[in-house]
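Exercise 7. Given the encoded structure of a 107-residue chain, write a plausible sequence.
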């Protein structure tokens, strides 16, 4: 797993640069955003790499708010795409819709 630094933030996307090789496109990159008021806990932000250039730079699109993100923060390449759990535990509120219930086995 490679580690880089955030060098630019534009809206919701950011650009990072690493001393080694840039992460592959579609890889997940994680960043820790610390609370700015001293009370808030650290928040882990995951993003998907959308563009790479010159072997060391990459642009990523986050899966959450970039509030509190600043330049110089470590961006860690996970070495794999974003993973989302699937199955009955993740159905949540969507299991109450009539279309979902008619397609679920055993109902």
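Solution.
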């Amino acid at each position: 797993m490679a580690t880089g630094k955030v060098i630019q933030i534009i809206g919701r996307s950011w650009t990072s640069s690493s001393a080694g090789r840039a992460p592959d496109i579609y890889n997940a990159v994680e960043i820790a955003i610390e609370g700015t008021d001293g009370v808030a806990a650290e928040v882990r932000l995951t993003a998907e790499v959308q563009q790479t250039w010159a072997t060391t730079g990459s642009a990523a699109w986050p899966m959450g708010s970039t509030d509190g993100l600043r330049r110089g923060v470590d961006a860690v390449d996970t070495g794999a795409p974003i993973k989302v759990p699937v199955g009955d535990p993740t159905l949540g509120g969507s299991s109450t819709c009539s279309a979902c219930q008619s397609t679920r086995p055993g109902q």
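Remark. Residues 36 and 68 are 7 Å apart (CA to CA). Students should compare their own answers with the one above.
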